[in-house]
Amino acid sequence: MDMENIRQVLEDAAQIFLSAANTITNERRREAEKVFLQFRRSQFSLDLYRYLIEHSSSSYVVYQTLTALREGIVKEWSSLDDALKEQVVQYLLSYVYTHYSTLSAHVREQALQILVVINKRRKAQRAQMAKNGFTVSLALINLLQSTNNQEFEFGLTLLNAFINEYSFSNANEAGLTIEQRHSVKRDFEENELKTVFELLLNKLQSNLSSISSSNHQLFSSILTTIEKILLWNFSSSFPNTRRTMESSSNVETIDWRPPISWKQLVFDQQLVEFFFHIYATLKSMNETKILLQRRCQILRCLSQLACLNGPLVSDEQCRLRYLTTFSYYFVQTFLINSTLTINLIECFDISNIISNLITLFTVKGFCSMNNDLCNSFLQLMSQITILLCRTTITSSNNQLDKIIEDPTIAKETFDRLLQAWSRLLYGIDFGRFANLRSLAIEIFDTYLQTHLHINDNHEVNDFNLADNDNDEDDRDLFR
Question: pTM higher than 0.90, yes or no?
């Protein structure tokens, strides 16, 4: 059967398979499904796959063709020569880039997954490409270094395919053993992931000075990808890498545990300073809903940076320097002239930052910082707590509802801060910090004023404690 006839058979089968349930019998649907199963089990043929991808009008046929291509590469990897594999890489990169705007999401994702699968298999075999050899990793880095926004966006999409494929060591789309999966994941973390993280930070910096409505989406996409890296579950992570915050929502947070190879990048104080600088820059612009969303993205990134843990923090001196740098810029950004300068909705992420810092770096770590910085941090923490305390009462919820869809967020955030205070006060030296007692009293007084105050507009019900002759005997009522 020639390639055109195969295309026609597959498209007919796709039309039957995708038909509404009430227009086709189950038997015909099963026959159509069998056509695709047989096609995917047929002998590997790149020429056929290319013909179907380029000439089929059915996205389902294209998707099944790409699936057959991926399964064929995995199944026949050892028998396929390197030149053919490289041909597949270059063809798919060109195809997806050329048709990027017209491809359906599932077709694009399947094509990019094939590229990452080839990358994983090469890593597993430690295949050394020729000096000028073309690899998927090199393509990824070149795209993310491009000044052309279209090429860069394609690079982001390819990077997301890498992240999806490498994020779970249990995923076995590439046909690797457990040991190989863990090995290639560690290799990816120590090389490509670190490199692309730095490239994304550079791109973010270059876009910050010229941010406008036209590139807001690109700016957000970069931040979203950075968030994924900061949420990455590194191979160096110890078993207990997830912590459940003690709150009514049981918020789960993941410690950020990059390997030793990231040490210079992570402990460069410019990393933390950069994220606070982005926040301050966005804050200085005219307030819009989009800019507020971007600032919240930055705060989520900072919340993960506050979760630094693992092998890097075993160096006590670096650990203290990181905490001091983070706390310094945290106070400088949000406590201006001793006045709190934040939007109410930002309190949720800021409380996460505070809770993460106190949990991961402990009270002992805070006590290692100088007194002035500690006092400023406590003052900022106190002002946020008081703001949330006043917000959680019913009379203030009208303001909150305009900003936050779920009004319980403020209460949960307030509870999280109280838990952070509890951890902090349990081990801190009250005599060392002159303002701590006054701050605690102010928080307590605010809580009493806002939660125990009786609104004059509310009627107070007086309960008559005297016996009511008309009431039934309690023994009968509760029998």
Answer: no
